[in-house]
Structure formats: C-alpha cells, structure tokens
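Inverse folding, one chain.
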C-alpha cells in the first residue's frame, strides 16, 4: 500500500517492521536486508526518527556477534534520539548499550547505562522497559558478587515479566536466579527456578536460552555432586556449543555477506544515479547548445539580412555617387571647354589690348601731336581761329574714329586685328 501510494517513509517503516519479524524468527540475514532497505530509504528522505529506530534495530542484530559494530549502530541511534528527544528510544538504546558492555564484562559502565534506562522507563511509565532494565541490573549485581541484592531486583523483575506476559524475559530471569541460588547453596530453589525457566524456554523456543539452561543444570548437578548427571549435561552443552558456535559464525558470515551485498547494491544505485545525473546534464547541455546554435543562426540570418539591406543602400549610394561623378565629369568637361574658350578669348583680347596699346602709341598719337602743334600755333597767334577750330575738329574726329574702331575690334573675336 505504501508503494502504490508513493509513501516512501511508510514503505521504509514497513521494511523495518518486517526486519523485526525476521529477527524474532532468528533469520538475521533477512532481517538485516529489510533493515538496510529501510535505512537507505529513510536516509534519502532525511527522516531522522526512522533512521534512529533502524540504527537501534541493526545494533540488536550485532549485539551478540560483533560488539564494536553493535556499539557503533547503538551510538548512532542514541545521537539522533537525543537530538529528536525520543525518550522511549533513548531508554531502549541505553539498555542495549549496557548489554554490550555487560558482554564485555565492563560491569560498572553497563550498570550506569542500565540505571539510566530504568530511570527513563520509570518516568515514561513503561512497565516492559522497566522490567528489562531491572533484569539487567540484577544480572550486574550478580556478577559483582552482590547475590542478595541481585536476587531482590530479579524477583521484582520476574514478577513484572509474568504480569506483562514477557515469557522470554521470565525464562532469562529464572536462569540468573538459578545461578544465584546455586552459588548460595539453595539447590531446591535453584531446581525450582530451572524447571520453571525451562518451561518458558520451551514456550519461546530460544536455542541460546536452552543451551544456557543446560549449562546451569550441569552446574547444579556438579554442586550436588551428582557427577554422572553432570557429565550428561556437559556432553549436551558441548554438542550445543559446537552447534551454537557454528550458528554464530554462520550468522556473522551471513550478516557480513548481506551487508556487503547491500553496499554493492548501494554502489550500483549511486552509479546509476550519477549516470542519470550525467545524462540529465548532457541532455540540458545539448538543449542549451541547440538553443545557442539557434540563436547564432538567427543572429547570422538577421546580420545577413541587415548586410543585404546595407549592401543595397551602399549600391544605391554608389549609383548616386557614380551619377554625381558623371555629372561632375560633364561639368568638368564643360568647365574645361568654357575655360579653354575664355582663355582663348582672353588671349585674343590680350592680343588686341597689346595691339590697342601699340595703336594708341602709333595711330592716336599722331592726331594728338597735331593737336598739340595747333595749340602751339594758337598760342603764338600764327593761325586763324576758324582754321584752328576746323583743324582741331578734324583731329578730334580722327581720334574718335580710331577709338571706335579699336572698341569694335576689341569686342569682336572674329577680327584678329585692329
């Protein structure tokens, strides 16, 4: 349903719950596979509450097989749970971290975590969590050789476990109580605790607990000096140990293989994502290049159009310039003709002026000299007035005729001389 509705966090949570189911069925490889799928999805969505829970679940898988990895996952869970103030998860993770320190025989550190867990579960009013915390505190006291205190705490935990129908917990608590009673020499109480615990162990079908009960039964018979029965239990323990060792090694190898397969799948997924990103980048790069090419082509087209228009305008201007040049050539030609004509006219006029000047010197000077002589005669009273006037008139008419003749010839280009 989560997949069909595209609810990825719901899908991740479903995978986490499936993993828990496989964990209770002792199918740890399948459990890890589901957990890793869940974790991968939560991580992609950056959904920290889901990530914190899955880290705790994976830590539980490694709790019995690989202490370092178990602590690593529990601490990751605890960091996120603290950030998000997930009180239930903080209490449970503290409990799980305490169990690993107990397995490492670091009892005081383990006790500190168990007490933190118990305080939190008490504040939350979580009876199941309180029961588990009390059970582990009792086990710590037992290992610290405080048997009476251990028994007191474990009896309380056993009562709570039965009240909440925690069969596995009841079986586990009875095992520790039996060990305490054996050390105290209370063999009847130890046998009673063993018998009750075995019944619960059969009910929950926990092979590890069955093995522990076999070993505790051996210890009881050995203390009773019932050596034959003790040897039988010891043989059974040895057989179970071999099977358990093989199972543990198989579980370790299976978990490592599953984690490796998950890493490979993640790697392939990352490669595929990178390839898709690259393809997407290439696609958009191609689109951008296509758009740029289209723009360049458009600009070239517009530029060519403008160029054609400009060329047409230039051609028109060239034609106009050519026409103006032809007109100028014609005007220049006409000017040359006019200049030549005017030059010729000037040359003729200059020639005539030169001739006029010479004529004035030679032709007009003669009547003027005559007039000058007549004037001298008039002064000396050697000529009559009438004759004087008559001769002067002739000189003047002669001068006038000569001047008219010169003027006519100067303004007539056809006449080459005076």
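Residues assigned per position:
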């Amino acid at each position: 349903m989560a997949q069909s509705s595209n609810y990825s966090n719901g899908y991740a949570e479903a995978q986490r719950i499936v993993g828990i189911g496989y964990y209770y069925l002792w199918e740890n490889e399948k459990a890890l596979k589901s957990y890793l799928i869940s974790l991968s999805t939560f991580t992609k969505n950056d959904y920290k509450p889901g990530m914190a829970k899955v880290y705790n679940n994976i830590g539980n898988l490694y709790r019995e097989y690989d202490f370092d990895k178990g602590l690593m996952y529990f601490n990751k869970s605890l960091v996120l749970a603290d950030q998000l103030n997930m009180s239930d998860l903080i209490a449970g993770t503290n409990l799980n971290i305490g169990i690993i320190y107990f397995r490492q025989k670091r009892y005081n550190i383990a006790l500190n975590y168990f007490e933190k867990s118990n305080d939190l579960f008490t504040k939350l009013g979580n009876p199941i969590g309180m029961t588990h915390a009390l059970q582990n505190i009792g086990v710590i006291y037992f290992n610290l050789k405080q048997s009476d205190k251990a028994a007191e705490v474990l009896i309380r935990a056993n009562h709570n476990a039965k009240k909440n129908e925690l069969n596995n917990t009841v079986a586990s608590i009875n095992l520790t109580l039996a060990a305490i009673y054996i050390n105290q020499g209370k063999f009847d109480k130890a046998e009673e605790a063993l018998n009750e615990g075995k019944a619960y162990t059969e009910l929950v079908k926990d092979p590890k607990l069955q093995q522990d009960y076999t070993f505790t039964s051996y210890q009881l018979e050995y203390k009773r000096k019932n050596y034959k029965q003790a040897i039988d239990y010891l043989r059974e323990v040895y057989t179970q140990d071999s099977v358990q060792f093989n199972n543990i090694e198989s579980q370790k190898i299976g978990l490592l293989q599953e984690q490796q397969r998950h890493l490979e799948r993640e790697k392939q997924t990352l490669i595929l994502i990178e390839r898709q990103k690259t393809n997407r980048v290439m696609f958009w790069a191609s689109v951008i290049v296509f758009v740029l090419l289209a723009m360049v082509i458009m600009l070239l087209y517009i530029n060519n159009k403008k160029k054609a228009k400009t060329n047409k305008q230039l051609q028109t201007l060239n034609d106009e310039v050519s026409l103006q040049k032809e007109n100028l050539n014609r005007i220049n030609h006409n000017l040359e003709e006019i200049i030549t004509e005017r030059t010729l006219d000037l040359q003729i006029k200059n020639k005539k002026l030169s001739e006029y000047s010479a004529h004035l010197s030679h032709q007009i000077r003669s009547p003027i000299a005559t007039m000058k002589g007549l004037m001298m005669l008039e002064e000396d009273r050697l000529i009559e007035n009438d004759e004087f006037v008559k001769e002067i008139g002739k000189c003047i008419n002669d001068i006038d005729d000569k001047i008219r003749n010169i003027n006519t010839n100067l303004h007539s280009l056809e006449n080459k001389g005076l």
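Confidence is low (pLDDT under 50) at residues 242-249. The CA atoms of residues 261 and 267 lie 10 Å apart.
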